[in-house]
Design brief:
The protein is of the alpha/beta class. The protein is built from eight helices and five strands. The chain has a five-stranded parallel sheet, with helices on both faces.
Length: 189
Amino acid sequence: MNKILVADDDRVVLFTLAEGLREAGFEVVEAHDGLQALKLCQSESPALALLDIRMPGLNGLQLAQRLRDETTVPFMFFSAHGDEDFVRSAVEIGALGYLIKPLQVTAIVPMIRTALARAHDISGLQSALASNRTIATAVGLLMRAEGIDQSTAFEQLRRRARTERRKLEDLARTLVEGENPPGPERGIS
């Protein structure tokens, strides 16, 4: 069962969302403010944190920054505010999604399941990069050459390895050694 942390200072929203997610089969941990949410994420390690943007203690964006820097807990935001600046900040900080209140649990469960799957993929990517220096270096080269993020660079490298029917590590070694450098002119995708 996937454990999800829900953080919102509005007790009615928190209760309604938490109960709906429990009925959908999730284990739910509740936080009434950003500081409590941070402590729970550090101690409980939920599979996903759903964060309201405006909370006392730490607001959702501050909390997300701390989660990104201090834990491996992925996060999504929900807010009554769909302001472009909030959404842009959420994307820049690494959110897996941004939902607008009022929320209907039946409508957001598929988004939560998608976010959980994406978080699992990202975790696998991070593990692969941590365990294989050659692949990590090749991904870094792609990121710099094409101005893309880590996930996109890894996916391009993986896609090219499949297309060329090569092992990922072999292709990465080729790129690192400069035999077939990445970049727009080479077209890795």
